[in-house]
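Human: Respectfully, please carefully check these C-alpha cells:
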Amino acid sequence: MQLGMIGLGRMGSNMAKRLEEHGHEVMTYDPKVDSTAKTLAELRDQLEAPRTFWMMVPAGQITEETFQTLIGLADAGDVIIDGGNSNFRDSQRRYSEAKGIGIRFIDAGVSGGVWGLSVGYCLMVGGDEDAVGHSEPIFLALAPEDGYAHVGAAGAGHFTKMVHNGIEYGLMQAYAEGFEVMEKSEFDLDLHEIAGIWRYGSVVRSWLLELLHAAFEKEGGDLEKIKGYVEDSGEGRWTIAEAIAEDVPVPVISAALFARFASRQEESFAAKVNAALRNQFGGHAVQAVETAKSSTQDPR
C-alpha cells in the first residue's frame, strides 16, 4: 500500500527503507533531506485517497505543527499515524480533533532504534479498529513476527510506549550500576568479556546487554572516550507522573531518572550541602574547590 513518511531522521529513513523492501510504496517529506515532496501539500497530492500519513518527527512543537498542517490538508477518511514519542494525552486530544472532521488518527509506539531496519520494530498501536485495520499491512511489514499489537483505544499506543521506556530506564541503570561496582573492585576484571559471557545462559541476558557488549568492543572496556552525561526524552518523567496519579510506587524508575539528572551536573550543590553539614556536626574534612585538598579540622 501507499504511505507518506514525514520525517527522515535515523528512525524514519530506516522505516521507509524497510517498508519499500516489503513492497510498499513510500512517498517522503523532510525539509532537511532529499524527499519525494517539497511540502506537505505536495506529499498529499502524491498519495491516492484514502491517504495514510506517518509522522516520524520529534515529540512536542514540531509534532503539533505537523499535525495541525495535516488535518488542514487531509480529506475525510485519510489516516494520520504518529510514530514519535508523543505524550499519550496529546495523542488523545489529536484523535478527537481529527475525528471531529472525519480524519482517522492512530498513535503508534515504536521501539527498535537504529537496528529496526534489519530486525524490525516493536509496534504498540492505539486507535479505532477501522483505522488500524486499514493500516495493518504497514505495521506487519515494520514489525518482526509477533512484534506488533493493537493495544487499545486512542492514546493506548503512546501510553504503552511511555511505560516501556520507563522500564528501559530502570534496566539500563541496573546494568550501569553493576558494571561500575565491578569496574571499581579490587579485581582486574575484563568487563567486555563478562558482558559477553552474560549473554549466554545468564538470567540477566538481554538485548541491552548485547548492546553493552558491543559498546565495550567498540569503545574499549573503560569507555574512556564517552562522557557520562545522560539525557532523557521525557517518557520516564511521564511514567512517574502517571504512577503518582495512580498511587503506584515506581522507585526503580524514579531512581533511574534521578541518576540521569545527576549525570549532567559538573558539580552538585546538594553534595556541597552534604559536605558542609558533615563538617559542621562532625568536623569531617571537606575539599576546597581551589586546591581539591582536605581541610584539617580536629573532630573533637
